[in-house]
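Lay summary. Proteins are chains of building blocks that fold into shapes, and those shapes determine what they do. In this project we predict the shape from the chain. Here is one chain we studied, written as its sequence of building blocks.
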Amino acid sequence: MTSIRLAGEDDLADILRIYNQAIEKTTAVFEYRPHTIEMRHAWFRAKQAASLPVLVAAEPEAVQGFASYGPFRAWPAYKYSVELSVYVDEAARGRGIGSALVRSVLTHARDRDLHVVMAGITSDNAVSLRLHEKLGFSEVAHIREVGYKFGRWLDLKFLQIVLDGAQQPRDS
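And here is the predicted shape, written in a compact code that computers can read:
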């Protein structure tokens, strides 16, 4: 049975394993070299310091996936918009774990009165594009040949969902 919960330090080795799978085998991450456990600890501490969630899909034997969100852009007026990331262990794909993680991220974002959640997805990642569209995201941009990996140019699509129920913000 898979449960979605907040990640802890004990989950970082599994999170690193899953992230490095994405680096080494997919176009989901525009990175060339595997990360280290020290890099994952620094990333996790930065998420905690910024009060940003790191959620995991946990099973008794290991974490099967993780998701988080962070700032979409650095300027203050973007503070109600975030960009999500979701990764699932290659052996656990096709079991609904990605959908459960994205739903949990959306719930977390709504609870914090965020307004827009963005997802940047390579155009060749049909599974992720379908997952996000199934959950209410729609494509808003297609940027051609913006990345280069595995000997080819990669297009990036931006999808977004506008969350309902957010409080009317104030300029500040």
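What the prediction tells us: The mean pLDDT is 95.
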